[in-house]
Design goal:
Helix content is 77%, strand content 0%. It contains 10 helices and no strands. It has a domain at 1-72: Serine Threonine Protein Phosphatase 5, Tetratricopeptide repeat (Alpha Horseshoe), CATH 1.25.40. The radius of gyration is 17 Å and the shape is globular.
């Protein structure tokens, strides 16, 4: 319940309440010494701190979440609604590392996110990792690498029937074609992703 409330408040932009829920999860996880709960807790606290108040403090919590995830990873094939929190920790920390001026470490985290999602054999997590890695490649001004991530996301979504992954992949794959290829092929991708999104329910992000 606390996990869903934290996401609810974050989606509404009520970040103080979201952090309050995240800190409550962290206290509970510390009491029970539950590694999987600690991953979720530090992810939520890290997101609220990193993107709202303090990048370095947020990254410290994400690093702790990654350490707990590595110590007790989810077994391959285990069912989970939404994406794996370990993958989210890796992609989120990649963004923060980039903002703090550590592009090489950011790229390493993004690549690890894809590797972990692949090893978990969990298509929603792999689509999530590919999409966010694609964004990082756009920031790096590496259009060919950026197109690879979203294109893989689209292919995976088509194969495994993950609508949100296909919409996100098409939107992210379009910019490099528009800016670097100087063609008109980007607009149909944007339009297709936008049309598919209408009336749909977005997946949980954090």
């Amino acid at each position: 319940m606390l996990r869903n409330l934290a996401s609810f408040y974050n989606f509404r932009g009520e970040f103080d309440n979201g952090r309050r829920m995240a800190e409550a999860i962290l206290r509970l996880a510390d009491q029970q010494q539950d590694a999987s709960m600690l991953v979720d807790a530090h992810l939520l606290v890290g997101v609220n701190l990193g993107f709202v108040d303090d990048l370095r403090a947020g990254l410290a919590h994400l690093d702790k979440a990654i350490a707990y995830f590595r110590s007790e990873p989810y077994p391959a094939g285990r069912y989970r609604l939404g994406h794996n929190p370990g993958v989210a920790c890796l992609t989120t920390s990649a963004f923060i590392l980039w903002i703090l001026g550590h592009p090489d470490r950011a790229l390493q985290r993004a690549n690890e996110a894809i590797a972990v999602a692949t090893e978990l054999e969990h298509p929603p997590s792999l689509a999530y990792g590919l999409y966010h890695a694609g964004h990082l490649h756009l920031w790096r001004r590496r259009p060919s690498s950026s197109a690879t991530g979203p294109t893989g996301c689209c292919d995976l979504s088509t194969t495994m029937t993950i609508p949100s992954g296909g919409r996100s992949g098409r939107a992210c794959a379009a910019p490099p074609r528009r800016r670097w290829d100087r063609s008109r092929r980007a607009w149909p991708r944007f339009a297709k992703g936008s049309t598919a999104t209408r009336g749909s329910r977005p997946p949980r992000v954090f």
